[in-house]
Amino acid sequence: MASTQSIDAEKAREFAVKTVRKLREANFISYWAGGCVRDHHLQVRPKDFDVATNALPNEIQELFGKKRTLAIGASFGVITLIGSKEQGNIEIATFREDESYTDGRRPDKISFSTPEADAHRRDFTINGMFLDPETMETLDYVGGLTDLKARQIQAIGDPAERFEEDKLRIFRAIRFATTLNFQIERNTLDAVCRHVDNLNQVSRERILVELEKTLSSQHRLRGIDLLCETGILPYVLPKTNAEAKAILLLKSVLAQLPANKLALTFAAIYHILSPELTATDIRRTIKSMKTSNEVAESAFWILQHITQLISASTEFWPKVQRTLVHPLASDTLALAKAIVLTAKTDPSGIQFCEEKLALSPENLNPPELLSGADLIELGMTPGPAFSKVLKQVRDQQLQGKVNSIEQALELAKTTYQSMGQ
């Protein structure tokens, strides 16, 4: 599917309407299905549309053309219709019933069926409705409208059976309760708690998708509570602990941070919930969760520099300066500040950094006085000593002790000679 960031909601909707209409013109039953129906009733503009139909996979491909379709999910009755970047893709699924799920994710066998039977094989009632986009009539065989009105997440049928079929649904209940700010129906919540161990059988990649949505939600503090209350926390955030005092601290810190920065969120979580781990340990753990290298490395860098910024007013300025000119400095300072404010500790280091970051770029990060080429002109031989000489000159420059090229050249000479070069 095209990135949801590039999808135009109105063009995606028009594409979804035309898709249903084309199926109907070919004498097939066709509706919008799942999350887009839920979002419509919540008055949220969907960007992602699914269509359900009685057309068989081969009939769907024949109707729309093989060049415009992907048959990756055809064995489960799903054909992907390819749209533009602005439209996104649409999954067109044949109404079906699922039989056993021995791998805890996909049905071993399916049989094509009716809209009502199809609704009953879905996960939660709020995701089990169909919508006619031409008349705007909703087909609700599972009580989804009632649960939307009650603002609750309820499994369709027996929660234990739904979770046994696809074990990721255990976590998806938490994710939907978080992102929608809904309650979880009592029997569904009980089943989540009873079957939490089954998350061990779910791939890290699938868990990460749900985790990112949970942690980037505006209601993520509620999500943290649910992860702790259900016992899911260590399954989706390995090597963390749910000690009550630490969770309270974490929630206070996260409340002060933007929710759309995953690396920053991971850094906060692991700094607070896993204090015994080193930054290197945490990077390894985050990578094991199948995050991108960028997220893992960014979290690692933030964790390496939090303490330095908290005590910046007493640190060696050139070292702090090098941290403050890094692209992740603002995120690191935001986390450091949140920790200091929550713990009510000495804020002088944070204030020092904020004052420095308020300087003009020329004052915070003045151009270096010397380069390697300058050292070569002085007759120095390229090698390990180069970086030491340049660092010494830069340190003295940042401290205001060297203010001209002439002074820098003289310092470079004496430093190089002191190394026995």
Mind explaining what this structure looks like?
With 421 residues, the protein is an alpha+beta fold. It folds into 4 domains: 1-145, Beta Polymerase, domain 2 (2-Layer Sandwich), CATH 3.30.460; 151-236, Hydrophobic Seed Protein, CATH 1.10.110; 261-365; 372-418, no CATH class. It is 53% helix and 8% strand. It is built from 22 helices and 11 strands. The chain has helices spanning 9-25, 35-41, 57-64, 115-120, 144-150, 159-165, 169-179, 186-194, 204-215, 220-230, 233-236, 244-254, 262-273, 279-288, 293-310, 317-324, 329-343, 348-357, 361-364, 372-377, 384-398, 405-418, and strands spanning 30-33, 50-53, 69-70, 78-81, 90-94, 96-98, 110-112, 130-131, 138-139, 152-153, 183-184. A 7-stranded mixed beta sheet has the order 3-4-5-2-1-8-9. Helix 7 runs parallel beside helix 9 (204-215), helix 14 (279-288) runs antiparallel to helix 15 and helix 16 crosses helix 21 (384-398). The radius of gyration is 28 Å and the shape is elongated. The model has no long low-confidence stretch (mean pLDDT 93).
Apparent shape: elongated
- The chain-level structural class is alpha+beta
The share of residues in extended strands comes to 5-15%
Query: What Rg is obtained from the alpha carbons, in whole angstroms?
Result: 28 Å
Mean of pLDDT: 93
Q: What's the architecture of the largest domain in CATH terms?
A: 2-Layer Sandwich
Q: Helical amount among residues, as a percent range?
A: 40-55%
